[in-house]
Amino acid sequence: MTRLDTPYELTPDQIDFYQTNQFIKLKHVFDADTLAHYNEVITRQVSHMNTVTTHLTERDTYGKAFLQLFNLWRENEAIRTLVFSKRLAKLAADLMQVAGVRIYHDQALFKEGGGGITPWHADQYYWPLSSDKTITAWIPLQATPLPLGPLEFSAGSHRIVEGRDLKISDDSETLIAEKLRVTDFKHVIEPFDLGEVSFHSGWVFHRAGANLTDQTRKVMTVIYMDKTMRLKQPTNRNQENDWHTWCPGATVGQVIDTALNPVLY
């Protein structure tokens, strides 16, 4: 199995690609045995924690996009080993070109068979964080061909601010898509091979297609921030909620150094 403390060495070209486009897909981050193990462990934990009983057809767009469970690292020691992996954390730091990273939080994103799209959005709309030094590792637990609804990116779209004030919704899908259509940013829609992991910044726009199969698309994510990240004054209710949920006890203007946000690298 992949050693979770073994560095994945990036090339200068890969770092440059991320710095330019604010996303990158990296092959062979994990091997098949490692993913099979975590697929089983995370699936069992998601099943245990999930409280959604509403039928898929009766949910709104956000609810149809995925089942979303947070901070599994606090519930399961085996999952903690993945989330706290030095391999992933060093990748996050190297791509952002920072000295170290803290965890913001983790989340499992399971798009059920027949699940809907994940609308265009930028993650950092939700986060009360003072800089753009944020990055999410998106870890498919299986090979993810297009019919399963892999993550899509608008390469370099972090440069525009229109749409940053939109939560994940039908409106974000429509309005951000309209804005992106009149730009030169490349819309990247590709499958993910087994073991391939993507990283994307908090302000780059991204989405995912519907799951057109009868299988669940299983993804684990870890959100990292610069280890010197400071809490900013929230600008919307979602940021206010994130402050008290994922950074409890943090003080506006100070480094987010709480028990839920340890330095991972």
UniProtKB/TrEMBL annotation:
Q: What is this protein called?
A: Phytanoyl-CoA dioxygenase
Lyase among keywords: no
Q: Does the keyword Lipid metabolism apply?
A: no
- Superkingdom, taxonomy of origin: Bacteria
Under the heading Pfam families, the entry gives: PhyH
InterPro entries associated with the record? Phytyl_CoA_dOase-like
* Gene3D superfamilies linked to this entry: q2cbj1_9rhob like domain (2.60.120.620)
Upper lineage is: Bacteria, Pseudomonadati, Bacteroidota, Cytophagia, Cytophagales
